[in-house]
């Protein structure tokens, strides 16, 4: 035996001794073959065994005097560097026993779903949450989820769909609503804006401040009126309202200096000279303009001069042949009430005539006597003609054309003045002169036909005719005075906005903007630049020459040969005038939406949920709905994450009460 064979013999004996296995040298059967035995080569430890799925969780490598060897971490045993020996050891009873003690019983592996299938389910859940938010109650998602899973069996989105009312509420509050808030914030940017504010109380007697914003939208290239926020008011005074407004502006990162106008009703807390909301904000924004809601003013003006007793007794309704209570958020009712009464004059007269005899009702007796007086019919016929014009102008304040309605407002005042004055006094300024000093007692009021019918039936004496004419004149004068009392500041603002209309802008002899520029605290350099651009804007050929808003939006996107907009400062100033509030129709629509979202069946919805729903509904207003609105991947990726499962105190009150 040479030295090499002796060394190999010693190594094998050492391994058999350590592993306590029978010697492979002695286990081999003896042969009498005179030829040399087949040489056996020593196998080295392979690192790939550590990555093998079968032994990787218990096999490790150790260094020894013989080189790198395999070791079982479970049995604490050195193994031979042979893969067959590793498998034999893994199947041994000792190893299985030790493995069971250390690792415990094996658990089945969870099936992993493809990322594409999960992504489709996320999109489906987001779309369903959009649908619920825009069209129905959150409670319905429980049934809609089960319905979709049943109908769309085999579809990856249907199989992985998991959304119920708690998750749906959180998606609306923590995923969809922040997305639309960020979109609105980016769209406003540094553009000039105005706010419409009004207070309201929901069905749970909580006070809210509805805030609507009017701004120039860069994405839509138009002046947009949109819902901004509806914070809860703990105290209804000027300080609380101002703090709520500033918190909302800070939330949307809107600069206070870009606020140009505030629209509100005539409540003293809003319009107080010293401590009103407008006065407090104006201390920080000197150029802030207050515009009172003209809808309320016109309605209140006409109400002061109408036939009071009859209107207090009979309320207008929109159901045919029914007299119902007026809508809580609509004030355009007097003209419709008068028309309804005139159309049903004989029926109402007969009804109250039967009620006074059969039920012995004093109110019915009074009303019957009023319906028997033909002078009342003639007076209401006169009121219908006047109130029709007032109603028409009132409805214009619900539109989005401020320059057009401002012109119609001035024409209404001129029409009323000309109705009761002599033709040579048609240019009376009602804000500086008294209309009563120029009254024509013999003016044409449109009563001649009714007066002639009454005379033919011998139901009208000369004294009654004079009284009827006097009452009609008093109504018109009272209406003019009521408008005068409510609209002096508004009318001046309306006239100023007319200066930037597209008709004036394209004229060669256009009016100067100097007074407006000085009112809004522009510097001398800005005034000179804007005046120069204003004087030359008609020299270019523009496409939008009919609509004032579209015209200035086109000017905002104008580029000259060098790629610059030389009319940018002028366009921004014109837009700052066009965003001034002129109507509270959007605030009334907001409160109508509030009454739909939070009603008797959903009276436990919290403020966060209600405002989130209103935010999403406002974001879907402009030619978008739940089925065609494309949500970005940043929003989709938040579905099925911790963002959709945020839990706050009192979340049990987010439930819709369904009866």
UniProtKB/TrEMBL annotation:
It comes from Brassicogethes aeneus (Rape pollen beetle). InterPro entries: DUF4371, RNaseH-like_sf. Residues 149-276 form the DUF4371 domain. This is DUF4371 domain-containing protein. Signal peptide: none annotated.
């Amino acid at each position: 035996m040479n030295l090499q064979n002796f060394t190999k013999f010693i190594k094998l004996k050492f391994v058999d001794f350590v592993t306590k296995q029978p010697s492979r040298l002695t286990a081999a059967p003896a042969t009498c073959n005179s030829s040399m035995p087949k040489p056996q080569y020593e196998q080295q430890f392979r690192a790939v065994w550590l990555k093998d799925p079968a032994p990787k969780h218990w096999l490790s490598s150790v260094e020894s005097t013989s080189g790198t060897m395999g070791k079982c971490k479970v049995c604490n045993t050195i193994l031979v560097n042979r893969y067959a020996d590793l498998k034999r050891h893994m199947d041994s009873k000792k190893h299985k026993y030790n493995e069971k003690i250390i690792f415990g019983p094996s658990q089945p592996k969870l099936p992993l779903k493809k990322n594409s299938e999960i992504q489709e389910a996320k999109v489906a859940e987001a779309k369903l949450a959009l649908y619920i938010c825009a069209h129905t109650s959150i409670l319905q998602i429980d049934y809609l989820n089960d319905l979709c899973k049943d109908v769309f069996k085999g579809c990856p989105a249907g199989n992985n769909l998991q959304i119920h009312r708690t998750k749906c509420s959180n998606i609306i509050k923590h995923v969809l609503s922040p997305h639309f808030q960020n979109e609105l914030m980016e769209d406003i940017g540094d553009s000039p804006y105005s706010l419409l504010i009004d207070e309201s109380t929901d069905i749970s007697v909580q006070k809210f401040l509805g805030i609507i914003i009017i701004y120039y939208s860069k994405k839509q290239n138009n002046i947009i009126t949109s819902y901004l926020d509806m914070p809860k008011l703990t105290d209804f005074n000027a300080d609380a309202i101002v703090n709520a407004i500033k918190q909302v502006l800070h939330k949307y990162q809107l600069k206070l200096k870009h606020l140009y106008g505030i629209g509100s009703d005539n409540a003293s807390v809003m319009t107080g000279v010293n401590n009103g909301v407008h006065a407090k904000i104006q201390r920080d924004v000197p150029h802030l303009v207050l515009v009172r809601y003209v809808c309320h003013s016109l309605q209140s003006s006409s109400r002061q001069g109408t036939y009071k007793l009859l209107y207090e007794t009979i309320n207008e309704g929109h159901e045919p042949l029914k007299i119902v209570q007026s809508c809580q958020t609509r004030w355009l009712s007097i003209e419709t009430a008068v028309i309804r009464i005139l159309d049903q004059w004989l029926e109402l007269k007969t009804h109250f005539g039967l009620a006074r005899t059969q039920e012995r009702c004093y109110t019915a007796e009074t009303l019957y006597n009023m319906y028997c007086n033909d002078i009342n019919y003639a007076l209401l016929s006169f009121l219908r003609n006047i109130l029709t014009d007032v109603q028409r102008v009132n409805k214009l304040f619900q539109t989005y054309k401020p320059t057009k309605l401002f012109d119609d407002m001035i024409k209404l005042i001129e029409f009323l003045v000309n109705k009761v004055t002599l033709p040579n006094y048609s240019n009376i300024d009602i804000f500086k002169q008294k209309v009563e000093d120029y009254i024509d007692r013999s003016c044409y009021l449109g009563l001649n036909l009714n007066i002639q019918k009454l005379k033919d039936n011998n139901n009208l004496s000369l004294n009654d005719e004079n009284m009827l004419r006097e009452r009609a004149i008093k109504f018109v004068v009272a209406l003019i005075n009521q408008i005068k009392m409510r609209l002096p500041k508004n009318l001046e603002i309306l006239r100023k906005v007319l200066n930037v209309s597209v008709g004036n802008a394209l004229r060669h002899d256009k009016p100067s903007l100097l007074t407006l520029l000085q009112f809004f605290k522009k510097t001398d350099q800005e005034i000179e630049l804007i005046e120069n651009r204003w004087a030359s804007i008609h020299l270019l050929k523009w496409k939008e020459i009919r609509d004032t808003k579209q015209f200035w939006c086109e000017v905002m996107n104008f580029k000259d040969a060098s790629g610059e907009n030389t009319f940018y400062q002028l366009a921004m100033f014109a837009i700052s005038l066009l965003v001034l509030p002129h109507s509270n129709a959007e605030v009334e629509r907001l409160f109508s939406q509030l009454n739909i979202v939070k009603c008797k069946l959903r009276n436990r919805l919290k403020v966060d949920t209600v405002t989130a729903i209103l935010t999403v509904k406002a974001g879907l207003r402009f030619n978008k709905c739940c089925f065609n609105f494309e949500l970005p991947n940043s929003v989709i990726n938040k579905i099925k994450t911790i963002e959709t499962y945020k839990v706050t105190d009192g979340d049990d009150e987010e439930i819709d009460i369904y009866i």
